[in-house]
């Protein structure tokens, strides 16, 4: 396996890897047809095996003028970390992370920040890889049935069918009937 900087010719493989790796996670519907571009500088690495992208990591980092991370200091936000399902469990994610950490240290970044959900094993993975949880809130996906009981728009011509929302309050139990609700957790790794 080779870990190297992302190149524009990797885009199709990058998209496939990201989509496939997210299918069995709480982010299964976060699908993109193109690789995202970042406003700030970034560390973008891919893992290549058998002539295909089997893993990826994208970290956009703070500049003097633009802050990406929520913590004080110079940090990098991990927007994507993914390993193709056929290649998971082989240490590719850890190798990508360690290569990215080396790059971040060269750039004098002080920490890396990542947000993940409580479904699956990603939170446990971050904790095993020197990250600590510093914040949390909830993502709620309201179906048309949830919307019919909870939302009454002033304009009767508007018929909400689906809604994505963030909840930062302390009474999450009021949403127990909502099927898709995830705790979102922020992890920080000091460099």
TrEMBL record:
Family matches, as PROSITE patterns: GNAT (PS51186)
Keyword Ribonucleoprotein set for record: no
Gene3D superfamilies assigned to the protein according to its UniProt record, in alphabetical order: 3.40.630.30
UniProt entry keywords in alphabetical sequence: Transferase
Domain of life, per lineage: Bacteria
Pfam families associated with the record: Acetyltransf_1 (PF00583)
SUPFAM superfamilies for the chain: Acyl-CoA N-acyltransferases (Nat)
MF terms (GO), sorted A to Z: acyltransferase activity, transferring groups other than amino-acyl groups
N-acetyltransferase domain location: 1-152
Protein name per the record: Acetyltransferase (GNAT) family protein
Originating organism: Jeotgalicoccus saudimassiliensis
Taxonomic lineage from the root: Bacteria, Bacillati, Bacillota, Bacilli, Bacillales
């Amino acid at each position: 396996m080779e870990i190297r900087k992302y190149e524009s010719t990797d885009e199709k493989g990058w998209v496939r890897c990201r989509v496939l790796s997210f299918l069995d996670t709480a982010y299964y519907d976060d699908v993109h047809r193109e690789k995202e571009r970042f406003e700030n500088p970034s560390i973008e690495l891919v893992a290549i095996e058998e002539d295909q992208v089997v893993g990826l990591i994208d970290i956009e980092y703070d500049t003097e003028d633009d802050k990406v991370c929520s913590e004080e200091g110079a940090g990098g936000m991990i927007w994507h970390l993914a390993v193709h399902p056929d290649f998971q469990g082989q240490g590719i994610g850890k190798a990508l992370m360690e290569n990215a950490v080396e790059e971040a240290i060269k750039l004098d970044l002080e920490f890396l920040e990542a947000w993940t959900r409580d479904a699956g094993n990603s939170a446990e993975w971050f904790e095993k890889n020197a990250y600590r949880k510093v914040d949390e809130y909830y993502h709620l996906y309201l179906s048309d049935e949830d919307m019919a009981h909870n939302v009454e728009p002033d304009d009767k011509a508007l018929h909400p069918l689906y809604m994505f929302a963030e909840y930062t309050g302390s009474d999450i139990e009021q949403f127990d009937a909502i099927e898709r609700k995830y705790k979102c957790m922020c992890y920080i790794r000091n460099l």
